[in-house]
Structures are given as structure tokens and as C-alpha cells.
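Q: Hi! First time doing this. I have a protein sequence and I read that you can turn it into a structure. Is that right? Here it is:
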Amino acid sequence: MFYKRQGIPEEDEIVLCKVTQILPNSVFVELVEYEKQGMVHISEIAPGRIRNLRDYVSDGREIICKVLRINRERGHIDLSLRRVNSTQRAEKLEEIKQEIKAETLIKNIAKKLKQPAHEMYTTVTSIIFKEYSHLYLCFKDIVEGTVHVEKLGLEKNLAQEITTAVLDKFKPQKIELKGVVKLEPYASAGVDKIKSTLQAIEKISSTMKITYLGAGRYKLTLEDTEYKPAEKKIELVQRILEQFTDKLSTASFEREKTE
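A: Yes, that's right. Below is the predicted 3D structure, encoded as C-alpha cells:
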């Protein structure tokens, strides 16, 4: 992966790490994007008592961590593995996946034009990174038609090659968030209450689908192209369920785990 960031990360930032050394009470890692070293204390690996760190990590394994503390004078970076939730992990992995895909596109163009891959990557990113933090974010805007890379400063022929390749390879990919809604009304008007609640949820998004599972349980599936907007829609679902709950009725939403 060519992509590197300058400086050091911020506290609470979610970062990609590679395990470099495992000690009895700590794990040392390389922050891949920053080329810095960090440490995960045994207490920040997983909840509960840990007998063997190698049950959770292994040498060379890539893990997603959260930055806890930074000692700028000593250059120490303390990290946590257990404080990264499934959504944060999924978002970071998707970011990495898309950036690697963008880099591969540049490598393929370099091969086509018979130029060194890293040299072309440097040429392209020296211009694009003035406006974007990642290549894939620029490529996303190319697909949406909100940016023309030639206007950013790239040479015309190279800009055309990139645009053609991006429009072919970077079609929006859908993600799915799933869960189960449980509605238990005890009032006489329970059926109408359930119906209006489900209708309110479906109005949140045209890609929100609800399927009856039985016994007051409903399968909820939401499609989107990005995690953050999708998460906001799930938050709206939970607010609607909170309004359903009263002295006579209860509602819950159990999120399907994302690996």
C-alpha cells in the first residue's frame, strides 16, 4: 500500500495497525498509514481476563485500533483494540479497501503507459491530495460528476486515462445494515400502533425493507452506499421505537453483527 499520512494521528482516531511484537502484557504494532510505532496494553486487547495474548493477536496480523493517548515528547502512542466497535471497524476496513482499489487503478494505468507505478502515484497524489485526503474520495466525486481531475491540475492525457478507468471500476457499491425489530403492544389498539410504527420506519428510506418473521419480530434491512448516512438512518429507527415504548408497550432493535 503506497498511501502514507504525514505527522502523527489524533487521539480517538481509528487506525490500521500491524502486529510487530507480542510480549506477556502488551502488543507492539506499526501504525501502517503513519509508519509510527504504538503499543496496546493487555487491558486494551479485549474485555475480561486474558490468559494468552496470542489467542487474540498474532505476529504480522493487521488489526484496527483506536488511539487512546499520545506522548509527543517521547513519541509514545497508546492504542486500544477492544474499544473499536463493529461499525468503526467496518468503516475503516472499507476505507482501506477503497484506497487499495484506487492505488491498483493507478498501477494499471502506469503499466499501460509503461511508467513506474510509484512515480505515477506520486505525480497523481501530489495534485489530488491538495484537495482530498484519499484517492478514492476523489474518484468517488469523478463518478458523481462533481469534479474533473484535469481542472485539479493533472496533465490532459493522464486525466482522461484516470477518468475513463474510474468510471469503469468505481461504480458505487452497496452496503447492508441488518437487524431485528421486536414490537410488543399490550393495548387494545396494538395492531394500529404496530402498523403506524412500521410505516414510519419505512418512510426513513426507500431502501429500508421490513419483513415479518413472526411473534412480533420483523427483519429490517437497509441498503446504502456509505456507512455514516446508513448509521444515521438506523438512529432514526431507534428514535421511532422509543416513541412506541410506553407503560403498555415495548419495542427493541437487535443489530446484526458486522464482522
